[in-house]
Write a structure and sequence with these properties.
This protein is an all-alpha fold and 62 residues long. 74% of the residues lie in helices and 0% in strands. The two termini are 32 Å apart.
Length: 62
């Protein structure tokens, strides 16, 4: 992942954070910090699927 720094470091940091958030890297790192029980992992994946489906339906209607 690359971010151009054109003299403004603050802007480059904001761009990097935005790209990391879009790719889901920050969320993935947080998730891997400690062990997650299989039952909790299953619940989390189901919630993510519901969120994704809701978002898909919302964009489809518009």
């Amino acid at each position: 992942m690359e971010v151009e720094v054109r003299g403004d470091i603050e802007y480059a940091i904001r761009q990097l954070k935005k790209k990391l958030q879009i790719d889901g890297i920050k969320r993935e790192l947080k998730r891997r910090e400690c062990y997650e029980k299989p039952s909790i992992m299953k619940r989390r994946k189901q919630a993510e699927a519901r969120r994704k489906l809701r978002k898909f339906n919302r964009t489809r209607r518009a």
